[in-house]
Amino acid sequence: MRSEELGETLLPKRIALPIFASDPLSSVAYATQEILLVLTIGGTAFLYLTPWIGLGVVVLMAVVVLSYRQVVHAYPSGGGSYEVVSRNLGANAGLVVAAALLVDYVMTVAVSVASGVDNIISAFTALAPYRVPMAVVFVVLLAAVNLRGVRESGKAFATPTYLFIAGILLMIVTGFVKMAFGHNPVASSAKYPITPTDHNNTLTGFALLMLALRAFASGCTALTGVEAISNGVPAFRKPKSRNAAQTMAAMGITAVVMFSGITVLALTSKIHITSDGCQLVGFPDCGSAPQQTVIAQLAAAIFGGDHSVLFYYIQAATALVLVLAANTAFNGFPLLSSILAQHSYLPRQLHTRGDRLAFSNGILALALVNVALLVAYKADVTNLIHLYILGVFTSFTLSQIGMVRHWNELLRGESDAKVRAGAHRSRIINGFGACVTALVLVIVMATKFTQGAWLAVVAAIFLYVNMKAIHRHYDEVSDELAVEDPSMESARPARVHGVVLVSKLHKATLRAIGYAEALRPDVLEAVTAAVDRGEALELERQWGEFDIDIPLKVLDSPFREITKPVVSYVRNLRKQSPRDAVAVFIPEYVVGHWWEQPLHNQSALWLKSRLLFMPGVMVISVPWQLSSSRGAGGPARRAPGAVRRGEPSPLTPPRR
Length: 656
Description:
Elements: H1 13-39, H2 50-74, H3 80-89, H4 91-123, H5 131-146, H6 150-180, H7 205-219, H8 228-231, H9 240-268, H10 294-303, H11 309-324, H12 326-342, H13 360-376, H14 381-384, H15 390-413, H16 417-448, H17 453-481, H18 486-489, E1 496-501, H19 507-518, E2 523-530, H20 533-545, E3 552-556, H21 563-576, E4 581-590, H22 602-611, E5 617-625
Parallel strand pairs: 1-2, 1-4, 2-3, 4-5
């Protein structure tokens, strides 16, 4: 797609919802399950806490959605939390948010794909041994679809998302109708009592509080990806801010309804699920047989067993949307990486767009990291979930604090009563949101840190330090290359000393000599290293026989080296005449097959790698195309984003 076609990729709300909200919508498929997994550590006695914990998650989701609607209107340029924090709290705080979000985007893909695979295995248990290969294949497919472009990926993922929403709502409505007529659904696991992990179901005081807080922290996975819409405002059709805010409201309402319905039905149907199947007393093959997910048990209980059509429909839709939920990260990660790259905090290649106007390099980087993560953790949701949601609440908290400062700044210079009233209302929303999300961040840190969340903290710190180092490097390079005096910077060397490197006298050598002569250096000579004395004498004989009109200098090489004598000779030329420039011409073969490349040019490559570090030395490759290269030099298919640049971002660089 041409750069001018970027406007054609803008999204209507019906497509934007599955693209940017598939993660929070699909999180309801496992958020209730994560709450139950924690509470059943103490046995069934503590499941009475589930409604209160679920209510806390619902209130938190409402607060976060309302808060981010303020962000969408105040900062429509698409930087989301990173832009809010950078502009209001400074560049360092912005980098903390960016590092946290990048880690969270990575975990979004890993957890979503692993959870989707879990639901597939719930329907087809024979696939359990293939968990990791299935997860890797899904990541590769997601990357491939996203490389086709934002609009194309949205069209591909819209139908499964809406099918999932329709299926879950149908299941909830059917379940409540059955309850209204006195036919409460009963889960297949209800008959299995739970053995408490510590064989003591009388937890009180601090222990009970920590259990409840840990369950609440796990349930907060329902909020992951909520901020993605604020990052993707530029991708919406006009009016961008209003459409984005309406999409966020639709996402929040839908997610709350689905999460609440699943939680109520899970309690009503007496679902028992544990992190260790052997805690379920009487569960067959507890050491090897996988437990069905909460969604699978609900679908079987409500729709008449695990062989009904609607059961398979729910499982297929859930598995598909959980895998596709990773698409939120495949849009958010490349976009945020692009903005960071433009601000010189990440490699500039991440700011480039590929053939289909997608940030291809960011998509590929995210896919590679996730393949490694899924293989390392064996695509296990229980292990991966502990690394999750820490980053998102860091960004939630700091962005809400940044928004409070934004409204304070606005109020200082605003006299219109209506505008001031709106700013006061927005400040209250963001202030309350900052307090609530900060409290949740503390809870998440306290309950998940020792269970693996410390790895996410280490990863975020590593990213932060590296982004600072990359920014410092780009600043140093920029300062070093800045032109202070054009007349001095463009001063010509006193003379140009041309050196043609020769190994044998053949067509490639003669072409290099001809090219060097055409450039008319002040001094031109040929140089060879006498690795083999007999070959050197033969070269001198041929040189005289062909009457070549430039001198040949033979460098002594007692240790049979090529690089060291040549580098020493060039260095001596620079010492003798520091104001001269040395132009080194190196004949190179061009081959047509990849397997031929290691057979040629190795000495030339090593020489170039040494000479390029010498000031005042120019290295010039003179190609000779071998017969195998004929026909291989057509229009090269460029790697995604390899030689392209992204369009200028509307964001201004953050305060330093």
